Amino acid sequence: MSATATAPAAAPAPEVAVEAVTIERDGWLRWLTSTDHKRIGVLYLYTTFVFFLLGGVEALLLRIQLGQAESTFLEPERFNQLFTLHGTTMLFLFVVPVMAGFANYLLPLMIGARGLAFPRLAAWSYWMLLFGGVALYGSVFFNPPEAGFTVFAPLSDDAFLPNAGVDAWVIALLMISLASLGSAINFIATLHHMRAPGMTWSRLPLFGWAVAAYSYVTLIATPVFLAALAMLLIDRKFDGAFFDPGQGGSAMLWQHLFWFYAHPAIYVLVLPAFGIVSEVLPVFARKPIFGYRAMVWATVSIASLGLLTWGSHMFAMPLNDTLRTIFTITALLAAVPAIVQICHWVATLWSGTIEARTALHFAAGMVSMLAIGIISGVFLAIFPVAWQLGDTYFLVAHLHYVLFGGAVLGVFAGLYYWFPKMSGRMLSEGLGKASFWTMLVGLNVTFLIGHSAGLSGMPRRIYEYPESAGWEGYNLISTIGSFVLALGIALTVWNVVRSVRRGSPAPPDPWHGNTLEWFTSSPPPLHNFDAIPVVSSAEPLADIRRALEGDGRAGA
Amino acid sequence: MGPTAPLRRAPRALRAALPAALALALIRAPAALADAFTPESGGSINANRIDSLYKVVLVVALIALVAIQGTLVYTLVRFRARRGALAAQTRGKRSLELSFSLGALVVVSVLAVITFAKAGGIEDPAASAGQPLRIDVNGQQYLWRYTYPDGTFSYHEMVVPVDTTVLLDVRSADVAHSWWIPRLGGKVDALPGYTNETWFRATEAGRVHEGQCAELCGRNHADMKASVRVVTQPQYEAWLAEQKSDIAEANKLAGQEAARRAEAAK
Asked: Which domain holds residue A220?
């Protein structure tokens, strides 16, 4: 089995003639000034992974504090700062922009373009993201924000948190949001105007569709968030009263505006991870994706329903009955396309010949963990049940199954799948699989038990709990799990560091991929392709390979 | 073996795997309904109703979960690349695709119908043996203040008579808080500028139900506890009278102290 899995390409490599092109010089100034989508993509990926590791260290500190009852490891103030940084970092500096990183690098390659529509906007977006991150982490040297990543008014008002932490958060988020708006515009323009000849929308790889959904949702939801941030800044710095009930403002307004953006940010902007899995599974099952059209519709539905579900975070608020009914219905409906995608992924694997490479491990693990996250989300969509489970560790567990199980495992699948393309080096399969299994065990040990902690009444965001509450056992298990999880991530970090220097050279198409990024050298040259092929299906490279093999009958 | 053979076999085997997984889930479901798997309840009828609604969702969820995970694992094992095996080049199957979408839609629709059927009994206050008791609940960093109909108030611990419907007006004096006593029902947010409503009817005298603020409200959010002590009607009246005289006494002492200070200042 492993013999067939590891035997690489005796099959003909796609026609690549890029050797004549001069390779860019690799000085540090090239990195600072580059407008090449691939360099910017790599910058995005490195930057967001550094933030991912920072957010991970913050999570471990939180877990150490919660591992035993009445712990005094962290002061309450420090605990609040850490979970605020953890949530903000993981969501706004990792999950959302890492998808932009993959899209920057891969979208032009997958659609057979020589670059993004607006190369300088891409560079600008990256630097805005980086400086936004620096603005947030700069606050570590005075007062980090401590109002949670949800920054609910009026706790976030200067009357209650007068120090500059929340200001740093607002400035950081303004920059980060402008960055993601810039990328969204760039991706949309690229998708609409720069597809290879013959690549109609119905032949766009599913990752492209996912990026389209990601970009349109960003385009619709982010301006609302930008407005909310500006309003909060006016409230804090210029005695505004948008969210101050004492002066006729509304604290609930912040929640509406925030969740209108943050619900899609959590549940829709993970879509590119779905797209990654939709690319990886067919390649290693050696089978086309099951029901391409239905997958596209599901992607579009997740995006549209995601924009109508923000109120499901507000069931315990003084929301009127009609709105509560509507948001229960939209939140339940939102589960449907996600379940449909999960079923289609399983059906894609069904009666394939599955090559269990590391990327496939992560993709299959993502399907399995996402299923838990989506199903636990159904509990929180039903408002009377959400009254018991919302704002508890049940919700924390659910959220992490979606964001870690769905997004991070998807991102790791993408990392193992595309690392050879991006770096020209292969990652170690052994280390990769060890990393996967350690992460999978760690993830479940950490978060599965969280459901029980929440069901026993443990609210989120508490820095301590008494022994009499009976939550210590659950929390100790979670804390142990979180270190297992960290070990799993460390194995991948080691794998990457090791392979960047000493990995075996990657051929242009190590996995026998279906899409055009494998139709060029690894890493691709500055102009991506010498010749751009005419596309006649959603798997253009599979077509080219078949044509080279002279086996036209297997084609679509 | 031609590439069409597994293609034809696939959906049939999938259909066989699903009922097997469902049956397995049904056998295991009762064991899963242990305490660590259900929300707190038992103090009030609305908490019990949330608990039973939750259990309906739990059974559906476990069936779906076992079906998905079971099929996924079976697929990964059964269809690993083997020498001579060929992947079926199928691009989809309309009937199967429809059944995925419609199946998921039907399940969530059924859940929605059950939810709305049950919601009334959870939202609307139940009929009370005597007059319902209305208490004003006011959240402040980091304590809860309860004001009873006659103006008497208490902090931290609320005292209520058994079998009486208690209507709560939940407010906040500063930032957002959330009132939550798990055994007495779901949480309601206390938001400055709004009055949020909830209710409970305690079923058993002599019990104390613990809870705490469930919305981040500042550094000592974790210490913002609340409890509800359930007593008999005579005990409640006695407590109320005592609390009232204690407050009057305290006010009197404070007044005397203020007068003494004013005297001393002259």
From this structure: 43-554
pLDDT in tens, B114-123: 999 999 999 9
Residues B41 and B152 in one domain: no
Do B109 and B140 sit in the same domain of this protein? no
Same domain, B142 and B207: yes
Min CA distance, A389 vs chain B (Å)? Answer: 8
- What does the pLDDT look like over B166-218, one tens digit per residue? 999 999 999 999 999 999 999 999 999 999 999 999 999 999 999 999 999 99
Q: Which helix (H) or strand (E) holds B137?
A: strand B133-140
Q: Do B90 and A452 touch (CB under 8 A)?
A: no
Report B:37-96 residues touching A (Cβ under 8 A). Answer: 37-40, 47, 49-50, 53-54, 57-58, 61, 64-65, 68-69, 71-73, 75-76, 79-83, 85-93, 96
- B119 and B11, same structural domain? yes
Shortest Cα–Cα distance, A248 to chain B (Å): 8
Confidence (pLDDT) at A267: 84
Q: How many CA atoms are closer than 13 Å to the CA of A268, on its beta-carbon side?
A: 34
- Domain range for B118 is 4-81+92-123
CATH number of domain containing A98: 1.20.210.10
Residue A12 in domain: no
Tell me the pTM: 0.91
ipTM value, please give it. 0.91
A352 touches chain B (CB under 8 A): yes
Question: What is the pLDDT at residue B1?
Answer: 36
Cβ count within 10 A of residue B23? 12
The SS3 call for residue A354 is strand
Same domain, B105 and B218: no
CATH code of residue B256: 2.60.40.420
- Burial label, A484 (beta-carbon count in 10 A; 0-12, 13-18, 19+): middle
Condensed to tens digits (0 to 9), the pLDDT of residues A237-263 reads 999 999 999 899 999 999 999 999 999
The confidence score (pLDDT) of residue B22 equals: 60
| Token digits of residue A220 | 């619709």
Beta bridge partners of B161: B231
